[in-house]
Every structure is written in C-alpha cells, then in structure tokens.
Specification:
By secondary structure, the chain is an all-alpha fold. Helix 3 (68-90) packs parallel to helix 5 (142-153). It is built from eight helices and no strands. The longest helix is centred in the N-terminal third of the chain and has 31 residues, at 17-47. The radius of gyration is 18 Å and the shape is globular. The chain has one domain. Helices cover 63% and strands 0% of the residues.
C-alpha cells in the first residue's frame, strides 16, 4: 500500500479463494492484537499499580482544552472510514495487507506499553472522548499510530484527495491529543514512529517480509 508501481491486476479484483485466505490471515493478526492489548492492560494493572506521571513541557506551554478529547475520536473515526472506503471501493486487493499491518502495529504497541508503564495524563479510570474505554497504557499513542497508518496505507496515485485529507487528520489528531492531555508528547511521537516503522519494514525492510509473503497480493 505504498507509492509504488501500479498493480497489474484490476483494482476491483474478484474475491476468490486466495483473497479470502489472505483476508483471514490479516484478520488473525488483528485478533492477536486484541489479545495482546487485553494482556497488556492486565499486566500493567497487576505489576505496576503505581506508575510514574512524567512532566511534559507542552502541557505547561499550551492551554488545556477538554473538548479536544472528542476531536481525537472524530479524527480517528474519519481516518478509519477513509481507509475502509479505499480498501473496499478502490483497492480491495490490498485489504488483507491493511488488516495485517494494523494487527502487527497494535501488537507491538501492546508490548511496548507493558515495557514502558506510564500513568495516564488524565485522571486514572476516566472515560475519554466518545469511547468509554479505560486507558492503562500511554506510550505509544494508539490514536496517533492508527491515523498515520491509515494515511500510509492509501496510495497517493490511487486516491490523492483522500491521502491529503488523511495528512491533515494526522496533524489534527496529534495536536488534539496533546491539548486534551490524552497523551504525553512522547506518546504521540512514539505512535507516529511506530506506524512508520511497521509500514517501512513491510514495504522496504526485512523484518516483516514474512508477513508480506502471507498477505500480499500475487
């Protein structure tokens, strides 16, 4: 799903047995990520009940905007909706790759959160945005990572306007996360770096070549 040469197969490829097999594998990566996220939350609560709350200079320099918490969810939902449209209407042959990469990214995030257990910038246990979720891990930011990965998975040549909108959403998400104290600045930067690492290793590196063999279109 990068800016590479156009796929010779039709964009509205027939969903044959090979496509369904690759899609099932991609969905399996997402399922693994869900298990890893639950395990991470359990481990953090059990092993690190008193977690450090680091200082953040941007929290001190910028105003706290409580309403920005809702902007973070709106930006995330909008990015995911654009990616779903792209995968269904423009490049259905790339849907398995998108599922797999989100699964890999979220699994790595769960591991890193457990290794770096920071206390929430918000009050512990508070609901956030429109999602009634309790955030136990902070670093890296899943919101920032997800929105950037949505952008990276959309090929500019296939959908230039969608790609531009996603680029704006990455900025909006990052700023809103900091203004609402949903994540520390280092969380946002870490989330962006995590998504770029996963995308780059899948497209150009060696570490995720085995994933590519499982889900890439022939």
């Amino acid at each position: 799903m990068s800016d590479r040469s156009p796929d010779p197969t039709p964009r509205r490829a027939a969903r044959g047995a090979h496509w369904w097999r690759r899609t099932l594998i991609g969905a399996s990566f997402l399922a693994l990520a869900a298990v890893a996220a639950v395990a991470s939350n359990v481990a953090i609560v059990a092993w690190f009940p008193e977690r450090p709350k680091p200082l953040d200079l941007l929290f001190e320099a910028l105003p706290f905007v409580d309403a920005a918490q809702y902007v973070t969810d709106v930006a995330l939902f909008a990015a995911l909706a654009i990616l779903v449209w792209y995968a269904v209407a423009v490049r259905p042959d790339r849907l398995p790759e998108g599922l797999a990469l989100f699964g890999v990214m979220q699994t790595l995030r769960a591991v890193i959160m457990t290794l770096t257990p920071l206390d929430s910038a918000y009050l512990r246990g508070a609901t956030f945005g429109v999602l009634p979720l309790v955030q136990y891990g902070m670093f890296p930011s899943g919101h920032a990572a997800s929105v950037l990965l949505c952008m990276l998975l959309v090929d500019r040549r296939d959908a230039p306007r969608a790609r531009n909108v996603l680029a704006v959403l990455v900025v909006v998400e990052s700023v809103a996360l900091i203004l609402s104290h949903a994540h520390y600045t280092i969380d946002v930067i870490g989330g962006l770096l995590l998504s770029y690492f996963v995308w780059h290793e899948y497209d150009h590196g060696l570490l995720l070549r085995w994933v590519k063999r499982l889900v890439a279109a022939p």
